[in-house]
Write a structure and sequence with these properties.
The protein is an all-alpha fold. It has seven helices and no strands.
């Protein structure tokens, strides 16, 4: 089976992964900051770990969606999700399914992949790079 046609579309599919992950990640920020689509646990206070996390989720997620500063933002978000996993989930159990940390672990690895792979074909980073 010849898969070269699929391989040729890898940069576009990478962009789709980036966009979908960014949009889903932004929801965690809108939940914490705006109480949308559902209010987060506790009040929003900017200078707390939850507040800073909400800002990173919203702004970082938006930058990931746009594909702007993708690599440094993805690196920061990957680290943030690693901290979230080990601080809030791992102490409860070794297993992500049991400790509720599947999303934190998955986001950590997706963002780490984006750090190495870049933004894909459809991104502001790509558009700005072509102008240079």
């Amino acid at each position: 089976m010849n898969l070269s046609g699929f391989s040729a579309r890898a940069p576009q599919v990478l962009s789709l992964l980036r966009i979908v992950a960014g949009l889903m990640f932004m929801q965690h920020g809108t939940q914490k900051i705006f109480g949308f689509p559902e209010a987060a646990r506790g009040p929003f206070e900017l200078m707390t770990q939850m507040g800073i996390g909400g800002v990173l989720e919203l702004v970082g997620g938006a930058l990931i969606v746009l594909g702007l500063f993708t690599r440094p933002v993805a690196f920061i978000l990957s680290g943030m999700m690693a901290v979230a996993y080990f601080q809030f989930h791992a102490p409860a159990s070794l297993y992500p399914l049991v400790n509720g940390g599947e999303l934190a672990a998955l986001y950590c690895w997706v963002f780490l992949y984006l750090f190495f792979a870049g933004p894909g074909a459809w991104s502001l980073d790509e558009m700005m790079g072509k102008k240079a």
